[in-house]
């Protein structure tokens, strides 16, 4: 579109799976008629003869021959619609109804405004009641959100966040946490084909004020605050953040079960080993501040067994994790104690040790996105010339570890009920923190 | 038991911004004698597709000057220098592809 | 606009449960000295060490006491319990991780 706006005719070629996300994005950016040519999905990693067949074949959306369609896109004169200027306004009604409760549940569900579970209907009375949880005005803007960068950002105010909080079953005292999450503009329903997991960690006095769970069953379906705050994040990501429409704005190939309530928990600050600071303090907040911190990424695992709490096991776990998107772990207090006894006197010390000792598996060092040499291209050239240690590293078998640190920071939090020294972790990256106190 | 009473609720949706319609660029009368850029947006593992595409274009439209370029860095990054080059030296652009 | 208060009657979501049987514990032995004490290990890691420690501590205090260790699955089976009970005077069952 950028080049099109410079006065140069363009034609994007896109694989057919992305027809609706592309058309949605183009509509929202004001160029709905941009002549896009589609080829059969997928194209990435496909051999040359298959790519050639797809280019010489037909567009699966229009049925036209791809090459002819490309040429026509560049040469056929514009239609009246394609040359139009102006604005399309999209006003929204504040109220919906009147309708029966059952009818509204069906309407909300069929419009894709829920997680396909029953909701608390957001009547004016219920929304007014939950708004008592904040001193901020209902029409005050909270933020903007998009499911990913090609899609447009929608804006929302305090009342609209409150509507989604009611739907999620939240109480007024949970609203400042939900507003803080909404203020970050971070979506829980990232568009990617990778079915991202999303996580929210709550720190500070508010954890106890609203009785969040950070003990037995921290991440499970056992607490009103944890469940409804996490649920609210998904609902507002869908409804306020222009997200959650499968095939258009959400492309997660298998979806992510965590997204019903996300990994919503409070850090058990009282059981941090000596010298280990709460996560929000690590991000610059004072201990007496209340704050949320948000994360997302590809994978999340539950590490049980009786040896997984040792630092060497943790190192091995992260060595074999995938390249995206970060590294995060939430330790049961017994595991944190175990690591403290190993000599890690702070989270920073443990992070630094992991940064220096989590290495590359051989195949990941050399390969990047399926292509050998793209992992470390300069080192690959040296290896081919027989220069050590790269030449020997290239000959190592699959599964061997290259002694080169990944240098990736690990986000560390503590929560759990001490029934055993376990932990959970994965490739989540830290995205943002936000003050809850501003929204009380 | 059914509830025949009707109620009004608040709309859960946010505010989509107004859409500013952007007109497309005028099209070319012919590709003959023109310079058309074929740009790889750098989505992983799409290079082979691009190589086949430009081969076929050159085979079928030999009177067009087809120029192959890779956008900088990752697929989600902008490349103003390339767009400026296309504006200065090109007549059209094909961009591929992703996934 | 006046609002009516609506009362609803709902179905109980919980399942049906039988009341558990009420069992009385057996009579206690008067003394551990000279008795055979059964120890059941459910093979969880660390169980051997735990029972070794109990065995040593009890024998230190009650030198004429003997122990018999039965190693089995996670929960002792009824027929195992019956056979074991016929050989011992008292039973210690440890639980934990």
**Low-confidence stretches of chain C at least 5 residues in length (pLDDT < 50)?**
none
Oligomer: heterotrimer
Whole-number mean pLDDT of chain C: 86
Distance between the ends of chain C: 62 Å
User: Kindly state the mean pLDDT of chain A as a whole number?
Assistant: 93
Strand % of chain C is 15-25%
Quantity of strands of chain A, as a count: 16
Strand content of chain A: 15-25%
- Which class do the helix and strand fractions of chain C yield? alpha/beta
Strand ordering within the main sheet of chain A: 8-7-9-16-10-15
The largest sheet of chain A, given as strand count, sense and whether it forms a barrel, is: 6 strands, mixed
CA radius of gyration of chain C is 24 Å
Give the biggest sheet of chain C: 3 strands, parallel
Overall outline of chain C: elongated
Uncertain parts of chain A? none
DSSP summary: helix tally of chain A: 17
The separation of the N and C termini of chain A measures: 42 Å
Query: What is the helix/strand order of chain C?
Result: EHEHE
* Strand order, largest beta sheet of chain C: 2-1-3
Shape, per Cα inertia axes of chain A: flat
Overview of this structure, please?
The complex is a heterotrimer of chains A (440), B (99) and C (97). Chain A is α/β, with parallel strands linked by helices and 440 residues long. Chain A has three domains: 82 residues, no CATH class; 216 residues, no CATH class; 46 residues, no CATH class. Chain A is built from 17 helices and 16 strands. In chain A, the strands form five sheets. A six-stranded mixed β-sheet of chain A has the order 8-7-9-16-10-15. In chain A, a hairpin with a 2-residue loop joins strand 12 and strand 13. In chain A, helix 7 crosses helix 8, helix 7 crosses helix 10 and helix 8 runs parallel beside helix 10. The longest helix of chain A has 16 residues. Chain B is of the alpha/beta class. Chain B is built from two helices and five strands. A three-stranded parallel β-sheet of chain B has the order 4-3-5, with helices on both faces. The radius of gyration of chain B is 22 Å and the shape is elongated. The termini of chain B are far apart. Chain C has 97 residues and is of the alpha/beta class. Chain C has a three-stranded parallel β-sheet with strand order 2-1-3, with helices on one face. The model of chain C has no long low-confidence stretch (mean pLDDT 86). Classes of the chains: A alpha/beta (440), B alpha/beta (99), C alpha/beta (97). Chains A and B meet through helix 1, strand 1, helix 3, helix 4 and strand 3 of A and strand 1, strand 2, helix 1, helix 2 and strand 5 of B. Strand 4 of chain A pairs antiparallel with strand 1 of chain B.
């Amino acid at each position: 579109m950028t080049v099109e706006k410079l006065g140069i005719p363009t034609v994007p070629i896109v694989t057919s799976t992305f027809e609706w996300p592309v058309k949605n994005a183009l509509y929202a950016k004001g160029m709905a008629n941009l002549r896009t040519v589609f080829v059969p999905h997928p194209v990435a990693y496909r051999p040359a003869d298959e790519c050639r067949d797809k280019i010489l074949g037909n567009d699966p959306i229009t049925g036209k021959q791809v090459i002819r369609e490309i040429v026509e896109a560049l040469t056929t004169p514009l239609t009246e619609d394609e040359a139009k200027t102006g604005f399309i306004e999209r006003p929204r009604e504040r109220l919906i109804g009147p309708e029966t409760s059952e009818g509204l549940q069906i309407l909300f569900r069929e419009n894709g405004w829920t997680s396909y579970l029953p909701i608390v209907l957001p009547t004016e009375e219920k929304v007014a009641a939950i708004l008592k949880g904040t001193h901020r005005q209902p029409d005050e803007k909270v933020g903007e959100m998009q499911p990913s960068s090609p899609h447009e950002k929608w804006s929302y105010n305090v009342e609209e966040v409150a509507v989604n909080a009611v739907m999620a079953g939240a109480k007024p005292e949970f609203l400042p946490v939900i507003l803080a999450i909404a203020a970050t503009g971070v979506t829980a329903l990232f568009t990617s084909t990778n079915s991202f997991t999303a996580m929210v960690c709550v720190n500070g006095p508010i954890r106890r004020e609203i009785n969040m769970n950070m003990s037995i069953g921290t991440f499970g379906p056992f607490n009103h605050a944890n469940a409804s705050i996490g649920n609210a994040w998904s609902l507002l990501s869908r409804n306020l953040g222009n997200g959650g429409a499968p095939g258009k704005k959400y492309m997660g190939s298998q979806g992510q079960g965590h997204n019903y309530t996300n990994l919503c928990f409070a850090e058990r600050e009282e059981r941090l080993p000596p010298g280990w600071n709460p996560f929000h303090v690590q991000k610059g907040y004072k201990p007496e501040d209340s704050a949320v911190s948000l994360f997302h990424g590809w994978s999340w695992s539950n590490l049980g067994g009786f040896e997984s709490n040792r630092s060497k096991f943790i190192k091995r776990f992260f060595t074999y994790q995938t390249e995206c998107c970060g590294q995060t772990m939430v330790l049961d207090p017994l595991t944190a104690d175990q690591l403290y006894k190993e000599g890690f006197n702070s989270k920073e010390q443990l992070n630094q040790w992991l940064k220096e000792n989590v290495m590359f598996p051989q195949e990941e060092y050399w390969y990047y996105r399926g292509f050998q040499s793209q992992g470390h291209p300069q080192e690959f050239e040296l290896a081919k010339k027989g220069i050590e240690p790269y030449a020997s590293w290239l000959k190592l078998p699959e599964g061997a570890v290259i002694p080169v640190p990944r240098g990736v920071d690990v986000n560390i939090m503590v929560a759990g009920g001490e029934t055993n020294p376990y932990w959970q972790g994965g490739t989540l990256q830290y995205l943002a923190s936000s003050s809850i106190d501003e929204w009380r | 038991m059914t509830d025949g009473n009707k109620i009004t609720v608040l709309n859960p949706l946010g505010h989509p911004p107004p859409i500013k319609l952007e007109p497309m660029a005028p099209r070319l009368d012919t590709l003959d004698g023109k310079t058309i850029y074929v740009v790889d947006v750098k989505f992983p593992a799409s290079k082979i597709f691009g190589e086949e595409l430009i081969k076929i274009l050159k085979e079928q439209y030999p009177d067009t000057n087809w120029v192959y370029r890779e956008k900088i860095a990752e697929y989600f990054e902008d490349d103003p220098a390339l767009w400026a080059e296309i504006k200065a030296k090109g007549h059209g652009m094909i961009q591929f592809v992703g996934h | 606009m006046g609002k009516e208060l609506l009362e609803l009657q709902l179905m109980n979501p919980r399942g049906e449960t039988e009341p558990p049987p009420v069992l009385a514990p057996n009579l206690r032995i008067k003394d551990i000295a000279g008795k055979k004490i059964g120890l059941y290990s459910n093979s969880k890691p660390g169980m051997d060490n735990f029972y070794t420690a109990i065995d040593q501590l009890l024998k230190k205090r009650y030198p004429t006491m003997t122990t018999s260790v039965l190693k089995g699955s996670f929960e002792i089976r009824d027929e195992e319990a019956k056979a074991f009970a016929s050989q011992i005077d008292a039973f210690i069952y440890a639980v934990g991780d």
